[in-house]
User: Fold Major facilitator superfamily (MFS) profile domain-containing protein from Pseudocercospora fijiensis.
Amino acid sequence: MAIIERLRAFRSSLVFITLVISFSVYTDQFLYAAIVPVTPFALKEHGNISEHHTQFWTAILLAVFGIGCFLSSPPWAWYTDHSRNRQIPFIIGLLILLGATVMLWLAPTIHVQVAGRLLQGVASTVVWTTGLAVLVDTVGQEQVGEYAGYINIALNMGSLTAPLLGGIMFERRGYNAVFALILGVIGLDIVFRLIMKERSSSTASNHRPIDLENRRKGQASTVVDTQEIAEDTLSTASTIVSSSVNPKIPAMIRLLFSVRFIVALWGILVLAAVFSGFETVLPLHVNKIFGWDSEGSGLIFLPLSLPALLGPSIGKITDKYGGRWFVAGAFVALCPSLVLMRLVKDNTLSQKALLVILLVVVGLCLTIILEPLFAETALRSDQLRKQERDAGIARTGCSRGYYGQAYGYFNMAWSLGNTVGPLLSGLVIDAAGWEMAVLSLGLLCGVSAVPIVLWTGGYIFSKRG
Assistant:
């Protein structure tokens, strides 16, 4: 009996829930990235697409995935918050993912492949809304940044291992072996999600402080700033606040009545655009300059991904001291780091060493940025709940607040960046070359540092009592 009780407790433990959510992120990214090496083959052999049109349809399939994520985020986020048990939508997402994978695998025409890719985008929405809402319910606002670090590790490991393993399986065992590998990963994800037991609403709330203001006095960030302070310098402050607590306006809309939240979403969009855009153009560049094959091009992402292992430690620090200067500093550091990659244009040992060093810096900056912005997203849900509580408004249908809808916006920003990044980077590199591509990414990060430093953690010039 004691063993059974321990097993039951483990199913709803913080460690196991974090593992399950992190692995779901890994599965999502693995499925997305593992298919990339085999897409041209699938288009020619299974979609009856000529080699001349392969690049066009590859871009379409990438864009359709982002469109699926973006459009499905609002309704799924609403459903997540209004569901009495978040594990149910989480498992429904797995069924969608399984169906999407089978469609992509067996697709007889390009239209079925497009439909499968669209469904894959919907399944990704489930991970980035329902999954993250479950994680925040479990760990609480006070530790969101720290546990976002584990999400970052899973995301980077998926990006790193999927193309490598997918390429190896394709070369040695063929097209079907790639999907056998993917289905194996999904199968393990299914087992984890079925074993996981979501904590009850009352249990989860015990881990989420209602007001952390007194716990962080004198530190760089306050968790429950009222919207009046954040919007004080804008002449429309009173209108925004009254709208934020107007029960006639859906919570999904009221979440947007915060400049601080909008800036966090912009930071997430830029982060995703840089991450995915860089992921698109880097393999082509190292192949052109150094002559590296697909294996070498895959390994070059190692210095970019390894800094993610520091994510939990970085998140713990930003949870304690606030994220403003960490995020702003990372965006500022990204600017010269990306621009200096213009210098990598010769096949020499020193150029290879320079590239590796710059990739480590870029990877570290991307890791620093994600954790605080992840926490800022959860914060907006807590702010809205506090405003409703102060106004005496009773919530109906959302017993756990608005984490699902807040992370629905997170997913929309991420998917938009994931779509725009590769398209813009590809267009720039085709029109003006590698130098202009990394310059444009660097300038985007440098400019983004301005709103980030002004609004992350609350408006920088607001007076706190």
